[in-house]
Structures are given as C-alpha cells and as structure tokens.
Design a protein that fits this description.
The protein is of the alpha/beta class. The protein has 19 helices and 13 strands. Helix 2 crosses helix 3. The N and C termini lie far apart (63 Å).
C-alpha cells in the first residue's frame, strides 16, 4: 500500500536539499504552491507525469521517491550542522537531536528549531504506552514520556521524519518571519492588531477585528501599495533574471567612495548595538542591508518594506534561496512606508540605504514614521545626501542646475546641509544624532547643463547618521 505521508516527507526532503522553497518548486513544475504543500503533507499525490518531473529534477528514480529505496537513502544522508547553528546549542545531546533532523529540514528550519530549543521554548518527547491483557481485552496501564535527546541512534533515525513533519505543522505553513511579525503589526486603516488566518485553499492572509484584510502573495504581505506615479522604477526588472542581474551589478562607484565605505560604518554600528528587530524602510532591492545580512551572527527579525510588491517578491526569493542566514528571519511588507502597518515603539533599529530620499515628496513622512515605530532607546541608522554649504559658489551652481530640471525628474522639495538636517532630527524628537561625512560634494560643471540623467543626487555629499530615540 502506498504511504502518502512517507512520500510527502521524501518530496520535502529532496526539495529542501535542492535549496528550493515550496513556491520555487511549484514554479519549476508549473503547479501551485498549495499543490506542493498538499503533496508534502500527505493529503494528495502527484500524478504520474508529475512524478516523472520530480524524478528528473532531483536526479532520482520514481521508485526511490515512492518507496524510499537505497538511492534515496544515499542521497539523504545526514549533513553536518552549520557552525552558526551548533553555536546555539552547546550541549551534545540536543545537537545530536538536531543532527537527526538535518536530513529532513533546511538550514533555515534547523536555525528556527535551534533558536526555540536554546530559548527553552521547545522540547521533544516520545510517548510510550504499556498495556495488560485482562478479560480478553488489553487495558492501558501506563504511559511514559521519553525525551527525544535520550533516544538511541536507531530509534532517533526512525522517528526523525515524524518529528520534522510535526514541527513543520506546529509552526504552521508560514515562514518564520511571518509568524514572528504578527505581534508587531497593526492595521493601517484602523490601527487595530492584525492576526494571521488560513483559508480553505491553504493560503494565508492577515485580518483585524474590523475585517480589514491583506493577503500574503508570493511570500509578501501585500497592503495594495503602488509605486509613485511617474516613478515606476521596478518595471525595468521584468522578471527574476533581470533582478539577479541588478543584484550582481557592481553599482555606481560614486556611492562606494569614502576612506571607509558607508556600508562598513553602518555594519560596525549594527554589530555594536546587536538589534533583535530591524526594519529596512523603502528598501528597494535591499542593496544596503544585504552586506549586513551576510554577517549577522545573533538571532534577529529583518522586516523589508517597500511600495513595490514586485521587488519584494524577488527580495523574498533571493534572500531565502541565495543568502539564507540561520540567525535571521525575514518578512516583506509591500506597503506605503509613510503609513507603516507597524505598531508604535516596537522596532530596535530602522535602517535606510537612500530609502528616505527615494520616497521623494513623502520623505519627511517616512522619516517621522521611522521615529514612531522605534522603541525608546532604539536607533535609526541611515545615509543621507547633504549639500556642502548653501553659501558656497559650488553649492549655489549645483542648486541652480538641479532646480532647473523639469518635473519628470521627480525633484525633492528641499535639499539640506548637515546643520539643517541635524535640526530636523531634533525637531522630529530624536535625543541625539551622530553624523559622519563619507564623501563631499562634487565640483560643479562649467556649463549650464545638468550632467546626470539618473541618480540625480549623486553630485551631493553623503553622510551616515545614527539617530537615537
């Protein structure tokens, strides 16, 4: 008899070992993520054509997926635990338990389980019963619970698939980031708390008590936001391959100037403060924070926010599949960053890599929102484009050229020197702001033609600011 549950476990194992999310596997097979979820949960079986596709994709035979033969066993051998996960569990017994699960879990899942174990929020036991025959029937006498960490190697190996499956069901179908952000979210329409719900088709959405809803679409919590009219910059990334080319592009060398690059100074600040909840406001393709995400070695939640659902969908895939860090849970919110669906005073650190400026006419609204969501004592760490000196001839020339541009360039209403910006920080409510110049303003051109068609603020100087609430 075909064991649907075991087949589902084997499909999940092969998917995770290939580094694919359920959505990514679904995309490759031309089915829905819900179909993959039902296969892995043992609710449905793939049809024979789909079994052929799975076997080809994972370099297996159909029999090895259905029966779990020697080929499957050889390819599913336990892997070594990543050092970052081992560091969370100093005792050998719990590491041995996690090692048994490594065959059936991705590194991200192992990291989540390790964090829960290390915090004392999770224990695993095996229940055993003893019965006695009395009057021709078996009567239950005693039940005992055995900690999974004490099980022998053979028993642990046999029970690991069921532990892994049950842990997945316990933690729900949501990614860890979606689970963790629930306590932080509020409805942008009425301010009430948002909680997750599951539809009959296994899709997830968030709803407040006033029945305002937002869907989780392609792994992104989507609040129906749209990019600024005339500034639909994400449309030049027509697909994920375009997005990958952008991620791997070396970028404008102007933004990499400075004796110490801005990205390194931001990381040093982050490493010192070790925030547990980080919000990247108007993150775009997350080119700023991605350098920090590779180095974070403490448990934290990273919230990426942007108006573009398209870009966040690609961010979610890229940072899950290609830059996974077991310490970091990621969640993406497609929303108006001047009206964040985040409750007051719950974020440890807001970061912005040009994000405030990218909001253009809403720049100051976004800056005030960052202050609102920060905890008392929290920090905003961001770079900002700054004029040299309004009184200097060089700055006057640049301002004249800049303000002579037409509306198609989406000009900022005001350009600041560093003293004006520090005053804005004080007026916003920040207790202190540290500023550091990364590089200065460019020499103005001789003629009367503005020299840049894109990234039109690159003539300005750059400062890194750390504002404390």
């Amino acid at each position: 008899m075909i064991d649907r549950e075991q087949i589902g476990i084997r499909i999940a194992v092969l998917r995770k070992k290939a580094g694919l999310s359920q959505q990514a596997l679904a995309d490759k097979l031309g089915v829905s993520a819900q179909a993959v979820s039902k296969w892995e949960g043992g609710k449905n079986l793939p049809d024979i054509d789909m079994f052929r596709e799975l076997a080809w994709l994972f370099h297996m035979t159909i029999d090895s997926i259905v029966e779990g033969d020697l080929l499957f066993a050889q390819k599913s051998v336990q892997k070594e635990l990543p050092a970052s996960i081992e560091a969370l569990l100093p005792d050998a017994e719990r590491r041995r338990l996690l090692q048994s699960l490594s065959t059936y879990c991705s590194d991200a899942e192992l990291g989540g389980i390790a964090r829960e174990l290390s915090r004392g929020n999770l224990e695993m036991w095996v229940r055993a019963g003893i019965t006695r025959l009395e009057g021709g029937t078996f009567q239950e006498e005693k039940k005992v619970s055995i900690p999974a960490s004490l099980l022998g190697e053979n028993t642990l190996r046999e029970t690991a698939p069921y532990f892994a499956k049950t842990l997945g069901e316990m933690m729900g179908n949501m990614e860890p980031g979606l689970r963790r952000i629930q306590e932080l979210m509020r409805c942008p329409d009425c301010g009430e708390r948002l909680s997750s719900e599951n539809r009959d088709d296994n899709t997830i959405y968030f709803k407040c008590k006033n029945n305002h809803c937002c869907d989780v679409t392609d792994g992104v919590i989507y609040f129906g936001s749209r990019e600024i009219p005339g500034e639909l910059w994400s449309l030049y990334m027509k697909n994920y391959q375009d997005y990958l080319r952008e991620q791997r592009h070396p970028g404008n060398p102007r933004y990499q100037m400075g004796a110490v690059p801005c990205s390194e100074l931001r990381w040093q600040t982050m490493k010192k403060l070790r925030p547990r909840i980080i919000l990247d406001i108007a993150c775009g393709t997350c080119n700023g924070l991605k350098y920090d995400l590779q180095r974070i070695n403490w448990p934290c939640l990273v919230i990426m926010t942007d108006v573009s659902h398209r870009i966040l969908k690609y961010n979610n895939r890229y940072f899950t599949e290609e830059m996974a860090n077991p310490y970091v849970d990621i969640v993406c919110l497609a929303c108006d960053c001047a009206r964040l669906p985040i409750r007051d005073g719950c974020i440890d650190m807001v970061v912005s890599n040009g994000g405030f400026e990218s909001m253009q006419s809403k720049m100051m609204d976004g800056f005030r929102e960052a202050y609102r969501v920060l905890k008392p004592g929290g920090h905003a760490v961001y770079n900002i484009s700054i004029l040299g000196d309004h009184a200097s001839e060089n700055t006057k020339k640049w301002e004249h050229l800049y303000y002579s541009l037409n509306e198609s360039y989406s000009l900022h209403e005001k350009l600041f020197d560093i003293r004006e910006w520090e005053e804005i920080c004080r007026d916003t409510g920040y207790a202190a702001t540290q500023t550091r110049e990364i590089y200065g303003e460019l020499p103005a051109p001789q003629g009367d033609i503005f020299p840049f068609e894109n990234e039109i603020l690159q003539w300005m100087g750059e400062y890194l600011c750390v504002s404390e609430k």
